[in-house]
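PROTEIN DATA CARD
Card holder: DUF3500 domain-containing protein
Chain length: 527
Origin: Chitinophaga qingshengii
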Amino acid sequence: MTCTSTQIRGLIPGVLLSIVLFAACNWGNKKTDNGQKKAKTDSLAHNQSQEPALATKAYVAELISRKKEIERQLPGISPEAAVRLYNGLALYVDSALTGITENEGGWLNVYVNYYSEEKNAIVLPDSVRPTVTLLATAGIEPWNIGEGYTELRTKPTFYTEIFKTSLPADYRSYLQLNADEDTVLYSADAGLMLPFSLIGQRALHWEQFLTTYPNSILADNARENFEMYCRDYLFGQDNTPSFDNHQEISSLIPGNKQTYLSFVQQHGNTKTGAIVKLFLDKLATEKSVESLRNTIYAEIRQVFIPRMELLPAQPGFSTAQVEQLTKATYDTVPTEEGSYKINRDIDSLAFFRQDGHTYCLATFRNGIPAGGGPATGWVDVWVFKNVDGNWQHTDHLLNAGGGGMYGNSGIFDRLTRLGTGTTGIVLSGGITHMGSNISWDDVLAFNNDQLTKAFSIVNSNAYDSPVGNSYCKYTRWSMQPVAQEDNYRLVIIAGNCSNAHNLPLEKTVVPFKNGYKIPEKFEDRGI
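Structure generated from the sequence above:
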């Protein structure tokens, strides 16, 4: 079988991005270099999907030519101009690898069968060897990722060897980390291929990157790497779990426990060490592996973002009490949208503290499953407050956000901090229709016991066409504290994506000025 992407993190040098991308030309950095040598604009960074299908030899020749041209331009170039060259090359590499994979699918499908037990190595037939040798001249190699799948990728040091010291420090560090990691297969067949101790070290490396370069455009990708390694380090994967029994919290494998104890002893003053220590402490208090996982995952997500004080489920307040407190309102609203029934049910409850008070967020899904394509569901949001032991309705917004075609309601995604006294409530919605895949976040602000709509932002916009013209754009957003200001600023990273792989191209900072004014290009839902 042929596979064109791994399940490992975003913007990975040496790993194939499988969808031919259409790069958003208005997201690139257009500034000149103030007298420095100006990097040539790579047209494929603007309209990559228009690249015609080529023979493998033509792709290889073009890639070699581009590498040589970049190497010619690099001496004396500014770091910012080098980034533009890097982005353009990364986009073309993606396009070339996709085209070559389509050309060479015949032997890639059976590549694993070339393995010789006698020689303990891949032995290529004469019909394939010249092609593999040709690909190697451009820095491309077959890579077995398990379960019978083989992909084409650039070798791990592809980008570090080309750009050397020309890129900014954060790019150099990021690419070197990935180059070091990609020399070995991380996971396959739903199992880890590395010892747990090395996974803990990887988490430390990404923690160090995020500590050193907190404002890097690459920080979002680095944070995803850090979080993935922390989760896998402590809980493993399906076929390499850290617990003998997925249900029994007392079944932590002794070797894993010793590894974690040693890690805390050596790295207890790091953020990763603090998570591992919390994991060990919670083994004595959590009732199940699932509850432990929920607690630790929530902690991992907050390591590099403004912290929320999240609480466990509170005794005496559950879905039954929520339904009772919302009944009077729901008895007055329609149960049908047009002639179609609305299916309304509780999506989730989340407890948190703000300004010294305990709150419960309750979200309701409103779906219209019989409504067909045009029907759009939504999510309602309710907030309740514990006042002297009594839970009271504080505020609510009906049709607060989310939604999607075919009557889908969307979901509550998470709580996040928008300011020193403001909690953000993130609702996610999306559309999948005729090859289009669009998703968005609708963010509410809860402040002074009131709910308001803060902003909406599209986080993914992709189109997969069987005849080309495919594209994939993404945005990631986060909140950043501002000295002596109650409201945080919004940071948006935009770029090109393919499966789990993100190539950031632009960073936009939106300050709070009587609200957040989101650039229109981040609000366009396309349909």
